Amino acid sequence: MPEAANMMTLDWNTIRIALGGAFCLLGALLCIIGTIGVLRFPDVYTRLHAASITDTSGAGFVLLGMALMAPDWIVIVKIVCVLIFLMLTSATSSHALVNAALTAGLQPKIGPMRKGQPEDEALP
Amino acid sequence: MHLLGILLAATAFWMANSGHYESLMLGFAAVSVVLTLILSLRFKIVDREGSPYVRLLGFLGYVPWLTWEVLKANWVVIRACLRADLDISPALVKVRTTCKSDLARVTFANSITLTPGTVTVEIQGDKMLVHGLYEANTVPESFIGMDARCARAADPKGAAA
């Protein structure tokens, strides 16, 4: 009877591994989406917006997944530290990059982009 | 006073990260903490900004709201990345902040940058140059709420810094 009960109820250890894996996969997917955005957007400023998906939600979900799969609390503390430092430094480095681009005299493209990519228009 | 704050933070950080509590390891911990204190004294960073614990509660209230904002903004940029035709319309706007202290201004600027779709390009006094992915979302009015929350979380009560 106890064995049957064990089969029925999912214990937390099983759930957290599965859930952590799912979160890691979601984070990886978001990183890929961010990369697609970096490749598609037209200039430095807009590409940085796409890269910030990878920085915030991509890294955030991967770290959340790893925290769920962590074997003990000391690993969780370290992951939380990584998360805090990543959030502080990624914003600062993005700002430094954009500020450097503006200081170097690179003009951002302003206003609505044309429908369709230049590559699309080259096709017959 | 501020030195004590850094001492406590460094000790707590070591304790939380190591997980070893033998006497040899604790000795190494003491040495590294003292070394950190000496270095921060030499850098002259032992001041109010070096140990901002008074405003920790304000920040703890601010972080969940910011996380939710970041997630909402992520969704917008993800859709922009994957849409078949590129419909972005980048814009540069000037945003005026009501934050008084440097810490609050940095918090505000970093929050804008951390939110996907908006980046702080330049800060001059209380004016910030913000680059946004969508013209409609990047108007000065859309930052008023974040500005007020940053001022409440990080500005010292009453006195201007």
Written overview of the protein:
The complex is a heterodimer of chains A (124) and B (161). Chain A has one domain (9-105). Chain A has 124 residues and is mostly helical. Chain A has helices spanning 2-8, 12-40, 44-69, 73-103, 118-122. The model of chain A is unreliable at 119-124 (pLDDT under 50). The model of chain B has no long low-confidence stretch (mean pLDDT 83). With 161 residues, chain B is mainly alpha-helical. Chain B has two domains: 2-42; 58-154, no CATH class. In chain B, helix 1 (2-18) runs antiparallel to helix 2, helix 3 (56-82) runs antiparallel to helix 5 and helix 4 packs across helix 5 (144-154). The longest helix of chain B has 27 residues, at 56-82. Chain B contains five helices and three strands; from the N terminus they run αααβαββα. Chain B is 55% helix and 12% strand. The chains are: A mainly alpha (124), B mainly alpha (161). Chain A binds chain B through residues 30, 33-34, 36-37, 40-43, 45-46, 48-50, 52-53, 55-57, 74, 77-78, 81, 87-88, 90-92, 94-95, 98-99, 102, 108-113, 115-117, and chain B through 13, 16-17, 19, 70-71, 74, 77-78, 80-82, 85-92, 109-111, 113-122, 129, 131, 133, 135.
Topology summary:
The complex is a heterodimer of chains A (124) and B (161).
Chain A: H1 2-8, H2 12-40, H3 44-69, H4 73-103, H5 118-122
Helix pairs in contact in A: 2-3, 3-4
Chain B: H1 2-18, H2 23-42, H3 56-82, E1 91-96, H4 102-114, E2 118-124, E3 127-132, H5 144-154
Antiparallel strand pairs in B: 1-3, 2-3
